[in-house]
Design brief:
Largest sheet: 11 strands, mixed
Number of domains: 1
Number of strands: 11
CATH architecture: 3-Layer(aba) Sandwich
Distance between the termini: 27 Å
Bound molecules: NADP nicotinamide-adenine-dinucleotide phosphate
CATH superfamily: Dihydrofolate Reductase, subunit A
CATH topology: Dihydrofolate Reductase, subunit A
Helix content: 10-25%
Length: about 260
């Protein structure tokens, strides 16, 4: 990994001069900001091709990512308290409970060994891969709304435990209230791994603080989702960090 550009707390730009980054420098470059009590930081992480596709021909992101993207994906999980995922992505990507492995385990000091996963769903259906217990992995929570209905909510409570089901909002999840519920559980470093509809709702809610975006040096043409979907919304971001690795560009973009 080579640092191309970084932006310091005083708003100054520093060219990276192609300096090679080891894993410690990478972890520092992606560290969450210092948060005061009750404060949250909501970061999203996505990968896209040069022509803006969020999936490859198999309808999954695994076919467009690269080694550098996988490395930062694992690092961002290790830095987070909770991983948010939309049910569409959990189904398409066959999500399992999150785990943190070497070289990032030292980042979990003073915290559970693995981040929790918060599944966002209006239907309240938890995919079996997430509801099943998995040794040495994080907890799973369901974040849903009243529309899911009592049967789905009660089933999720039986499967995941009463405390792991958050119901916020009527026809859809109220994002502000959901972020507040996570923060009340001490989960303040929040990582949203998509997908596009959840990202669209998060952006529209004004609760997205930062986007980590990997651009892979690939064109795929065809019809593929972008990293956002749903109702149109404009959010302006400014670059904070740019890294290059074998043609893959990785960046952090913060809300202005
Ligand atoms: N390139 C990348 O980095 C990346 C990242 C993630 C995903 N993807 C790709 O994106 C595709 C999936 O796209 P998608 O738009 O369907 O994904 P999604 O946003 O994860 O899933 C949509 C579903 O998530 C739930 N959901 C989303 N927003 C919600 C909200 N505000 N409140 C409550 N529930 C909410 C609903 O689940 P219910 O249907 O259960 O109600 C909804 O039908 C897959 O092909 C995946 O591979 C790519």
């Amino acid at each position: 990994m080579r640092l191309l550009l970084s932006h310091d707390d005083l708003g100054r730009w520093s060219p990276g001069r192609g300096g090679v980054m080891d894993s410690e420098a990478l972890a520092l470059a992606y560290a969450y900001p210092q948060l005061c009590a009750e404060q949250t930081w909501v970061r999203a992480n996505f990968v896209s091709t040069l022509d803006g596709a969020a999936t490859g021909a198999d309808g999954r992101s695994g076919s467009i990512n690269t080694g550098a993207d996988r490395e930062v994906f694992a690092l961002l999980r290790a830095l987070s308290d909770v991983v948010l995922v939309g049910a569409g992505t959990a189904r398409a990507e066959r999500y399992k409970r999150a785990t943190v492995r070497a070289p990032w385990t030292y980042l979990r000091q003073g915290r559970p060994a693995h981040p929790s996963t918060a599944l966002f769903s209006r239907s309240g259906a938890v995919p079996p891969e997430l509801s099943q217990a998995r040794e040495d992995s994080g907890e799973v929570m369901l974040v849903t709304c009243q529309q899911a209905g009592a049967a789905a909510i009660n089933l999720a409570r039986d499967t995941l435990g009463e405390q792991n089901v958050i119901v916020q909002g009527q026809a859809t999840v109220d994002m502000a209230a959901a972020v507040g519920s996570l923060a009340a559980r001490g989960l303040r470093r929040i990582l949203c791994e998509g997908g596009p509809h959840l990202m669209g709702d998060l952006t529209a809610s004004g609760h997205l603080d930062e986007l980590c975006l990997t651009i892979t040096p690939t064109l795929v043409a065809g019809d593929h989702p972008r990293i956002t979907a749903g109702t149109a919304v404009t959010a302006n971001l400014k670059p904070q960090l740019l890294i290059e690795s074998e043609g893959t560009i990785l960046g952090r973009w913060a809300r202005t």
